[in-house]
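Write out the 3D structure for:
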Amino acid sequence: MKYYVVAGEASGDLHASNLMRSIVQADPSARFRCFGGDMMQAAGGTLVKHYRELAYMGFLPVLTHLGTILGGARLCFRDIAQWKPDAVILVDYPGFNLSLAKKVHNKLGIPVYYYIAPKVWAWKSWRIRSIRRNVDSMFSILPFEVDYFRRHRYSINYVGNPSVDEITAYKADKNRKPALEDDGRRIIAILAGSRRQEITRNLPIMLESIKDIDCIRPVIACASGIEPEFYDSIIGSADVEKVYGNTFGVLESAYAALVTSGTATLETALFDVPQVVCYKVPAGLAALIFKKLFIKVKFVSLVNLVSFSEVVPELLGNDMTAQNVKEHLTPLLSNSIERRMQLEGYNQMKTILGPAGAPDRAAKQIVGLLSGIKAD
């Protein structure tokens, strides 16, 4: 069967490529065309357009490049219409993908499947209406999403979390090289975000919070695509190391971590590294938007959301100060009750997430649904 797969950023490229490989296991005749990245191409997809050509974030960048984005959307739809796949598989990237789902559903009648649900439970909840109308089946990677979508009259399938797969595979790789040599000091992993604005807001406060703590070794797990000079302009003379392209290696070596909210909080927990979640918000309109967001969700870190409890501390907005970060980090540097409680919470979170195998389970369900359609 023929599958058209659409992803719009680096993480989507990774998750989509693993899903494509799993689909081949379930459907050896599978052929792919895709809007995506290098990993999807390496997994056997014919790459129509790279996500880097359309990856604009924020109001002004999107507005400035609106013509390019709309042109990419038109190209994607035309290519789907001409190739006539058996299914369109959308991976995250909701702004682009939900608009595409509407056109594919209404004009082409091709089944639309969604892997990694849009986070409508946190932001833009009105998108659930578009999902109900235009997405045939959705495969969730966060267990709490199942109840949320069902309350909104849309049934979804939880297939597991791909971070579990990725970290399980990493730990099983006997040829992996350590990111850092052990020098006796306790490593503090610093994950300050993946975008320049996040790093600019969060990293200076993180560095300020640890400057007077003795006998630690701070290491920044640098985001891919961010040049070293950018980090250097923020770090200045601070005594801190940088590691590129090996976040898992840094986390494997770490004793504790400072983490900007996102998938990184989940990855840190899966490596059993106690953490403080830090997310600074700029003043003004962005701060008002941030407050509105938290009317909808009690927590922002995936660790706490999955666990339905405050396993890790979250210092958000004005609460993220160097002093507050230091006060929450310091107990994690010894065998304290705070450290032990986090590690116990991580064990409970892992049970809720379930075992590895998310892309395999999603692939089998997608192929099964399509086989049923063809049988009819």
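The first strand starts at residue 2 and ends at 7.
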